[in-house]
């Protein structure tokens, strides 16, 4: 909450903080989360930024990517921050998709034949424009 205040300049609204990893593992949410985390991991290896700068910069880039693909950003700043915390805590990680080779947010012990939500969308998803617009390579 302190970090959120520092970055957003206001307190997060009550009940807004997601404390479950489930959200990040749902289909479209997972694709957005993975996009953000890939940007975050990429930045963290490149330049020396403190935690707040890294998070805000990665989140800004995520928004730019999503805007370029003309889709709604599903990942809020609070969730992006929460995702990083889950990864830090070892509750979530990235797993390579066995089909496209992209890195996706997953639970820690995902099996080796993991297939991402882009290669294997759920039946209900159909051919969604918003899913196809995002690639993580
Ligand atoms: Zn894939």
Features:
137 residues; two-stranded antiparallel sheet; mainly alpha; single chain; 6 helices; 7% strand; binds zinc ion
Unreliable spans are: none
Structural classification: mainly alpha
Q: Major beta sheet, specifics?
A: 2 strands, antiparallel
Query: How many angstroms separate the termini?
Result: 32 Å
Kindly describe this structure:
The model has no long low-confidence stretch (mean pLDDT 84). The longest helix has 20 residues, at 27-46. The chain has helices at 2-8, 22-25, 27-46, 51-68, 77-88, 129-132; strands at residues 92-96, 103-107. The protein is built from 6 helices and 2 strands. Bound molecules: zinc ion (ZN). Zinc ion (ZN) binds next to loops. Residues 97, 99-100, 102, 116, 118-119 line the site of zinc ion.
Summary, kept brief:
This protein has 137 residues and is mostly helical. The chain has one domain (17-132). It has six helices and two strands, in the order αααααββα.
Give the SSE map:
Blueprint lengths: L1 H7 L13 H4 L1 H20 L4 H18 L8 H12 L3 E5 L6 E5 L21 H4 L5
Antiparallel strand pairs: 1-2
Helix pairs in contact: 3-4
This protein binds zinc ion.
